[in-house]
Every structure is written in C-alpha cells, then in structure tokens.
Amino acid sequence: xxxxxxxxxxxxxxxxxxxxxxxxxxxxxxxxxxxxxxxxxxxxxxxxxxxxxxxxxxxxxxxxxxxxxxxxxxxxxxxxxxxxxxxxxxxxxxxxxxxxxxxxxxxxxxxxxxxxxxxxxxxxxxxxxxxxxxxxxxxxxxxxxxxxxxxxxxxxxxxxxxxxxxxxxxxxxxxxxxxxxxxxxxxxxxxxxxxxxxxxxxxxxxxxxxxxxxxxxxxxxxxxxxxxxxxxxxxxxxxxxxxxxxxxxxxxxxxxxxxxxxxxxxxxxxxxxxxxxxxxxxxxxx
Length: 286
Hints:
The protein is α/β, with parallel strands linked by helices. It is built from eleven helices and ten strands. The protein has helices at residues 2-16, 20-24, 68-74, 76-82, 120-134, 147-158, 193-205, 226-229, 235-253, 271-276, 278-284; strands at residues 30-37, 42-49, 56-61, 84-89, 107-108, 111-112, 140-145, 165-169, 208-213, 260-264. It has an eight-stranded mixed sheet with strand order 1-2-4-3-7-8-9-10, with helices on both faces. A two-stranded antiparallel sheet has the order 5-6. The chain starts with a helix and ends with a helix.
C-alpha cells in the first residue's frame, strides 16, 4: 500500500513538473513579444528564438522610427546563422526622446545626468533579465543601426558591460574618443580628472565594431548639427574618422585597442540590408 501511494505521488509530481524543454527554453521558440519589468521601467521587447541548441543573446536596437519589431525581423538571418536569441527592446519616444535614446541620457540641457539615470542602465538590467529567464550565463552581443547605433556608441563609451561585441552601424554621431570634446559627442566633462584617462582607456578596449555602409553618404534623417558635422561630412566619413581617432590614441599611449572597422560595399542607410549582408557576420565576430 505504501509503495502504491509512493508511486501515485511520483506520478503527480511528474505531471505537475514542467517539461525539460520548457525549462531549457523560457524565451519561447519563434517570434514573440512581452513586457519586461526592469524595476522602475517596463520595456516592450520583441524576441526571436532560432531552432538551435544553447543559443547566445543578441540585443538589437532600433532606429529613428522606433520599430523594434521590424528590427527583430531584420536580425533573424543573423540569429539563424549564428545561433542567437534576438531581444529587441522598444524605446518609445514619449519616455525616451532623442537626448535619452540616441544620446544615452548622459547629458540633458547641457547638464551631465546622474549615472544611475543613464539609459544604458536598462541594457544592463535587460541582460540580467535574459540570463535569469534562461537560467544560464548567456554570452551577449549587441547591434544597433542609425539611432540605435548612436545609442550603442554612448553605451560603449559610458556604461561598462560584458558584451563580447558591440556593433555600431551607420549612426549620425559617435562618442569621439576625446576628453576635450564634451559629452555626449566626446567624453569630456563627465568624470573626475583623476578618472578620465582610465575611462578613455576602457572605452578603447571595449569590443566595438564600427559597421559602415560604404554608400551611406545621403542626408535623409541625418543629424547635421554643428557637433555632428565636426565628426565628418557624411555618416560614412564620421565612422571612419571615429575609428581612426581611437586607433591613433591607443597607439600613441600603448593601450589596448579592441575596435574593428567593417564596411559593407554597395549599401547605403538600410538596416535590413546591413543586417542581412555577409559583412554583418564579420562585424559580430568576438
């Protein structure tokens, strides 16, 4: 009788326990959408899980049109080929206007904001959420195009993460590796004098890829403010100038330089074409 009761209780336990596959894949297969609570903020995220074992994480950052769902779809070829879960957060314009999204919330009305309020903190929280949801230490890569590239430039410069690669594609502006240029277009006036060089050195050692469409020379939706034009005449030129400036400083000081420059020939200002190009694979390599 006791053995029978034990057997029945075991059956009840097995029936109630979630299947192994569900435990291994909390972010569901295929396309999805959910609201993610990150403490003080909740973000809508669009997801895609490919059919492969133990995928890593690819965070995808949308452009000016705030179309995170489209960007999730643009990234699907990368996810399928590289075995990555896509998580594309939506930064709505109401809560995250230009200064808070493209510029990373670093400076508002010429005042440097409290680092605890920088928008990049939400990326750190989103990585923690994905790892907790997946119940494993996911390897993280990031890619953003246009406005999303501007955001990732600020993230790379000011918010340390353990990302294995941060791909900054076709933005209008960068954080130039300079302590003379004021943030958010450089690194000036953010840190104490005693800390500035260490922060600049960290930025140059961050695994950044500047990913450029070689034909991205048009001016549609391009930021052509005085600060932007100081970085170059076109998006393409600004990217090459930012890379060269970082390379020059790292060589002069004998510092590590983990940036990479990748160009996609024949592509202008198109996230879909950039993400589906062969060069995108090179851009995302650790």
